[in-house]
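Question (not urgent): is this output format expected?
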Amino acid sequence: MQNEKNFIKKDARQSAYARQEERVETIKGLVKLNFTKEQIIDFLTQNLNLSQQEADNAYNQAMATA
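Got this back:
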């Protein structure tokens, strides 16, 4: 049972990391398409169902790794 719980936690962490990486790539792609920061934030909130704060954080993180 403990091994199953550890696997689920590990899987959840990997999924969260994959989503984060996906967001970064999406944001970088939108930047290449000349989207403004405001347009990207709107895209993230409307299409990825992020809150305004989550979208802003994702944008800032993506720009820090650009």
